[in-house]
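Before we proceed, please read the two lines closing this message. Tell me what the token row says about the fold.
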Amino acid sequence: MTKEVLHVGIAQIAPVLGDVEANLEKHLSYIKQAYEQGIEVLLFPELSLTGYSLREKTLDVAMGTDHRLLKKLGEAAGDMVVSAGFIEEDQAGEFYNAQVMVKNGQLLHVHRKLNLPNYGGLEEAKWYSKGQALELCEPIVGWPMHTLICADLWNPALPHLAMLDKPALMLAPVNSAADIVSDEFSNPQGWKTNTDFISMTYGVPLLMANSCALEGNSRFWGGSRILDAFGNCLAEAGGEETLISAKVSIKDTREARFQLPTIRDADSRLVLDLLVKRIGR
């Protein structure tokens, strides 16, 4: 039977760059806090187990999906859904910026980042391979979820494609530093606009989890937020480590998508035809 209301949370943390053991302990602490509060879905930021500005440290922290650290994370999660960020090593020398979803000691899903930013102070395309799949996961009956990592949400086609699967919840782990794009571009305002738009346009509750670490000259500003299906902000973090939570409901999603039927009216066949024509020019 589908749960009408889901208690969701975000662990906004400051990962220690390159220290997966210290970061695991931090994860376990927040998982314990979340469990005590009755949270059912807990989201950590992008690369929460490793930190962001890894560069050559990538080799030291990369792990396969059968790594003991991920198994320990899954065991600690119990019946809570936990989503955390890590560097996945597939074949030797092939690395992905990835987000893992675990529950009851099991690895349920891995999303590999699709849109690797390579502008401003960002150079992920230099270090990582691009993901090639966008797959739905339903860790709780009646609550299918999609995960998009940071810049994935800035490629408008990717949120649109994800929403065609009609997820009941969107998970958006990010690593956003205030001035990493340029001095003129406001990341805090940009992320507010971006997440408000996606949530309201598609009628989907959305969790955006940002880091609040200081890595060299990069200050990750936090500001993690939980939105309901109407784009209303239910909970928002400041700039420090914290656990925030809120409750989202299927009732709101039904009403939001009835009032603004974006998915129903997407007309994917027409969009595909127009896209094919444009590519063929």
User: Anything to note?
Assistant: The first strand starts at residue 5 and ends at 12.
